[in-house]
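Contributing: when you submit paired examples, paste them exactly as shown. First protein:
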Amino acid sequence: MSPRTAPNLPDEGLAIGFQPSPPAADTRKLHRLYRALDRDERPFLSFPGHLGQVMAELAPLLGMFVDQRRGPYSPTVFDTGTGEYEKAVLTYFAALAGASPQEAHGFVTASPREALLHGLVMARRGLPEPSVYVSEQAHFDVVRACELLGMNTVRVNALPDDTMDPDDLLLQTRMRRGAGALVVATCGTPLRGAIDNVAELRAAAAVSGPVRVHVDASAGGLMAAHSNQVPPWSLAHGAHSITLSGHRLLGLPAPAGISLVRREQDPSSGALGIRMPDRLVVGSRSGLSALLLWTRLRSLGRAGVAAMIARCQDAAAYAVEQFEAAGASPERFPDSLTITFDRPPNWVADKWRLECFGDLARISTTGPMTHTTVDELATDLSAARLGAVA
């Protein structure tokens, strides 16, 4: 075996042996790892700076085993008592997405990708031979999910602001007239946080026959719902299903996703709170995600979530001003928490743990992104630019 293909073996001291290892020694290892990570003085932008406070609220949940064998609306002999908590979370997110409890149902997942898989499966039901129309600026998880489900994917051009081009969608669907169309809109594109116009896309795809619009709002749903001018992104604007998330913005210690589907798209099911057959991607799932979301949302309230997002949007607008003054050419979709700018030298990217894509760098103003943090990063961007010029 060549060195290039040799496996990367774990540290000998971490190997899992035949006999149990001393628990006290392993606990010390974990504590050393925690201290090493905690001592790292490099800021981790976009990661919740209030995680210590959140963990104080959520720590008791980590001592629970919550195995949910069915969906939140289905009675089961294995009832853990967490179903009502999950339904409360779903009611909250359904309202954000512009639907009443009688119009949409869903479930909480262990990750946004699991929610996305469920949404795509539900959106495909009832269509003749649909292709899936995906923007070139959509998250790579969307294309990956389509591959896993064996769906034919058609890439659609994006406009300069990163939104899907309705004219190109019309052209692509016209070439496949009568086959039906599953359009995946994006609320919060990876680079610029752009939000596709659901109403426009649904109208553009109508030439293909029956249309279903699924919205991947994992990155931007919470922000869009709390913007001063709410963009046309949700169930209220013509979407049939939607994928949401909130673990990064809300500061959860583990991922969580939300899948919502219109009742009209799944007529055999009931509304929220009414028994429905299970159509879940997985047969057994943890109830921890729903409890984490419920605890955090209850501690903030709707007013607290709105205020938190307003602070993040203010930081984003301030960052655009400061980065522009630093000569970094920032770009931001209206009300987005994502800012892209010219990629700085490696010493700046490493110091601030910046996410970089080709010639661009990206930050999201969640977590610890205060005006002071923005000023410090802008100072480094300005110094790097002056150094390059010199």
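Second protein:
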Amino acid sequence: MVASGWSHSESPFHAGELAIQTRLGVQEQIDKQGRRGIRNYLPEQHRQFFAQLPYLIVGTVDTAGNPWASILVGQPGFISSPSDRTLQVAAAPLFGDPLTTTLASGIDIGLLGIELHTRRRNRMNGTVTAVRSEGFDVQVGQSFGNCPQYIQARMFELEDHDVMMPKPVYSVETLGEAERSMIAIADTFFIATAYQSDSAGSASGVDVSHRGGKPGFVRIDDDKTLTIPDFSGNHQFNTFGNLELNPRAGLLFLDFERGNLLYLTGSAQVIWEGAEIRAYPGAERLLRFQLEKGYRVEGSLPLLWSEPKFSPFLAQTSSWQSLSPRSL
């Protein structure tokens, strides 16, 4: 197939994304880029990329409208594409992952294929067309690549695992000591958002995205509130465009040393201006997350990781801990 871009006359972006692009004066530029780079099929290099992955980040929405970010793990080859319009995933959710309850035929789903060790990532949004005990199928809605910015490079080793083996699961209503410890050292997390409306046309659905920074870039304000800097990106504003119209978000934090996973869902708002943004080097805006509920699962992730090699894009950024209290 000869690679082509967006085949629809309508924009690949919905009203929330367009509103932010327009506000920041980049809408015309990003429209052209989006029509070239966003497709309703999987290019051959994306099909090959997904097939070599040992883990996959997933975004879904539960029946109450709460977004959740999840992770699936399997031997390379557990993701396949029998056609350029279909992705098949042969893996069951990890024990305690919200995906065990949100996954169903007909739902919108967001997928992020990411290789931390190479800093490559590709996104796909679509619809689940079949669910089986050993996995599920997704029909492609949108497929596009992302740049390697802010990804902390890590090598990995996949362990043998039984996803059905029970793990300690703790319900989270406030951020306790264990949750705060995970978040305080995090240099990576994933965020799921959604805008599901007929008015959005082919841009309707669920997104899941990567966020990275130096350890401490996620600030813990109190037992329910997190503040996160947002750095310069591709200006598509998929995540923030969803939040413009639906202020709900799900976060996933990984403890790379112990294999613990922290799933959070709640509300989110974007802070576009003010001294608080200017005080954080490199930040262009802030994301403020308010926890509603979550789960912490111990020893769940069957991957062993190396120490990170930090992204060169973070050279001019800082962490909240290193900032002078007077500047805040």
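If you have annotations for the second protein, write them as plain sentences, like these:
The chain is about 15% helix and 35% strand.
The chain has one domain: 15-320.
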